[in-house]
Design a protein that fits this description.
This protein is mainly α and 76 residues long. It has helices at residues 9-18, 23-32, 43-53, 58-67.
C-alpha cells in the first residue's frame, strides 16, 4: 500500500532537529520531501541553520526563533 501524504516542511525540520541531523543531512531530507532546502538569506531559515550548526534541540530552536520574532517550528 502506498501513502500519498506529504509531510510539511516544519515537520521534516522537527524530525531532523530531533534526530540531530547535520545541515547537509537536513537539506537532503528537505530536498527528498520536495520542500526546498534552507536558504540563509531568509531570516527564519538562517536562524534554523544556526541552530542546526550549534546542535540545539527543538525547544532551544523555538526559543531562538521567538527571540528573532519569526514563526516557530510547527506554527506554519
Amino acid at each position: 500500500m502506498r501513502c500519498n501524504k506529504k509531510p510539511s516542511r516544519d515537520k521534516i525540520l522537527q524530525l531532523c532537529i530531533g534526530a540531530n541531523f547535520t545541515l547537509d543531512e537536513t537539506n537532503k531530507a528537505l530536498k527528498i520531501g520536495n520542500c526546498g532546502e534552507l536558504y540563509p538569506k531568509i531570516m527564519r531559515d538562517s536562524v534554523i541553520i544556526f541552530a542546526l550548526n550549534k546542535n540545539l534541540n527543538i525547544v532551544r530552536t523555538n526559543e531562538l526563533l521567538f527571540s528573532y520574532n519569526v514563526s516557530l517550528l510547527g506554527e506554519e
